[in-house]
């Protein structure tokens, strides 16, 4: 496992699922965690889990769709631990399962504000801080397999996740000379509250979702976390601007 000893790591949406698993993995590797979420109870629970295991963590409430709260989260990280080495823009929401013409304008705007705006605002605040640090930094944005493929019945979600990859590639090129590495991950269905909500829409949904994954199962949050850790590790200085597909073989054929 890579060492993140005394590396300061900010993770949005760290109160559950992939965000929590990633926070725990970074803490186990020696990182100092800033846990961010709109769900205070979930975020505090993640902090408690890290501290009980002997790690360092602090919580801040952050609505990623609010640029001022994103800036406040970065300021909190610097004020608490002195710097910002790693940022994982993980927070996101699922959308209403409906055909494109049946999607409401309000749902579209909310999806864009959280899933795409949240990454844009986050990177703005994070990169501004990293530019002041000689060591630069590492950023991973959580897209989705829906960011590289069409997602019938989920047009707003797919559009937002495609946008995350565009932001990732652009930021990677703009700041590659500043020792800032920016990558994205694109998980397939992974055990989380969001995926559970999707499965609950109909009795056969889980089996339908599982059938499209060649490996025959959903991803585990801990598996996604390990990929994020590698992208942020000191061993990775060469990989930037990439959208890593963690899909159980879905896009191989």
UniProtKB/TrEMBL annotation:
A Pfam family: adh_short_C2
SUPFAM superfamilies registered for this protein in UniProt: NAD(P)-binding Rossmann-fold domains
Single GO molecular function: glucose 1-dehydrogenase [NAD(P)+] activity
EC number: 1.1.1.47
Keyword Iron: no
Entry keywords, A to Z: Oxidoreductase
Source organism superkingdom: Bacteria
UniProt cross-references to NCBIfam families, sorted A to Z: PRK07231.1
Family of the protein in this entry: Belongs to the short-chain dehydrogenases/reductases (SDR) family.
PANTHER family per UniProt: DEHYDROGENASES, SHORT CHAIN, ESTRADIOL 17-BETA-DEHYDROGENASE 8-RELATED
Protein name in the entry: Glucose 1-dehydrogenase
Organism taxonomic ancestry: Bacteria, Pseudomonadati, Bacteroidota, Cytophagia, Cytophagales
């Amino acid at each position: 496992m890579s060492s993140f000893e005394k590396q300061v790591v900010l993770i949005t949406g760290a109160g559950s699922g992939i965000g929590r698993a990633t926070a725990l993995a970074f803490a186990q590797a020696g990182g100092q965690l800033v846990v961010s979420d709109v769900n205070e109870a979930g975020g505090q629970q993640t902090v408690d889990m890290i501290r009980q295991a002997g790690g360092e963590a602090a919580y801040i409430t952050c609505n990623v769709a609010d640029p001022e709260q994103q800036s406040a989260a970065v300021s909190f990280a610097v004020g608490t631990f002195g710097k910002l080495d790693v940022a994982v823009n993980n927070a996101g929401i699922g959308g209403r399962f409906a055909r494109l013409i049946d999607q409401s304008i309000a749902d579209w705007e909310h999806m864009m504000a959280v899933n795409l705006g949240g990454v844009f605002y986050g990177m703005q605040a994070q990169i501004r801080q990293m530019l002041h640090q000689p060591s630069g930094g590492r950023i991973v944005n959580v897209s989705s397999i829906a960011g590289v493929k069409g997602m019938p019945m989920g047009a707003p979600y797919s559009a937002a996740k495609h946008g995350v990859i565009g932001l990732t590639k652009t930021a990677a090129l703009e700041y590659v000379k500043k020792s800032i590495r920016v990558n994205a991950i694109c998980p397939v269905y992974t055990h989380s509250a969001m995926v559970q909500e999707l499965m609950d829409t109909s009795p056969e949904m889980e089996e339908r979702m599982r059938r499209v994954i060649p490996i025959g199962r959903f991803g585990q949050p801990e598996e996604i976390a390990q990929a994020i850790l590698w992208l942020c590790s000191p061993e990775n200085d060469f990989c930037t601007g990439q959208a890593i597909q963690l899909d159980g073989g879905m896009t191989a054929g």
